[in-house]
């Protein structure tokens, strides 16, 4: 692969930081002398914006197997899809090399005979060059030893003849070994191409899968580019193996849904036109009403209709946020949340996906977000995400992957949420927060606690949303959760895009 010193410097840095690449190079190097060069070429093919291969005639015979493997990879029909994911991204290019590791092993194994013959051809070529050099030395010696007016002595002539015959024999052996290596490589070519195509497909799938995983967890391309190699590798491994890795698609879908609803909101504006109504808003008066002002005899009529609020106006419908305080998601992590909910997805995954979408919603609106994980009365964990600082992916993962286990208590998490909103009100005078209760259980509360709860709700003006996860009875009209919430729905409602969108539109 044609590469400049900056490309090679990038490869060396990636190689030094990736234990996986070093292990693969060591493993392949035990059976193939040019393994490190092969991995470097495979990386550069994926990394460079416009990869270009050298011509085979420029290569040493022992590197022709590498050349054919890299050629097969880059000429695969699927390579363009892989290259779109990896070009300019050292980490993703390195990941693509590792994803192709098994295929590289197989291709080198299939080309073992060709490689052996190529190395023999290279040795024969060296021998031929050495023999040619010996002929030249013999000729120079003969010219030196012979007197100017006499022929070279017979022993010198015999030495030159012997060197010439040895050179011719070595050159013939080199040609035959080169033809033999070419035949062996040609025989291995179909298998190499098939393995290369499969390797590129798997590498492209791995690259796309990791990119989708990062997007699902809200890690943007810009953040990834700034992230050190080792940190990015650890993050990718954590996302792939975490407790919610299987449900990353659900998490991403919720976050996209919330993002779509934010795009539909028109803050502090009248919104889209839906018809005509009556009123006194001069900014929305229809043109035919304004035309009356052009006639002196109709101006009094216009003024009378304006005073009575009977001017014809454009009617509109828009979205405007109502919450100002923090968004608090109380997520049930009792043992029953392990069970499957709609679609075979665990109740925990449904609840955490919704909570992470609410985190995005709060960040976009400039509101604090608090995640409260609860179970029994003695189990509570609070994760704060202030609006004034970025929400790091590590903190988000800590919140999403924590699980307490045990029973269920409503009073402890809701009291904690109310205390947080009161603290926020005392510090910043912000009221009208939103509490979202995500649970699969219905448990009682005391009358005394309920009186205090209602008083806090009246004083701070917060709203309470409830989502019953996997147990419809919790969302019934006579449930405790219904008595606590202003807006209650079942998680099954969230499988309907419009119902789920409504939740993110009003928060």
From TrEMBL:
Cross-referenced Gene3D superfamilies: von Willebrand factor, type A domain (3.40.50.410)
Ranges of biased composition (kind: Low complexity): 131-141
Pfam families linked to this entry: VWA_2
Regions of compositional bias (Basic and acidic residues) in chain numbering: 115-130, 142-151
Segments of this protein annotated with the region Disordered: 115-154
Top-level taxon: Bacteria
Domain annotation VWFA: ranges: 324-507
Record-given protein name: VWA domain-containing protein
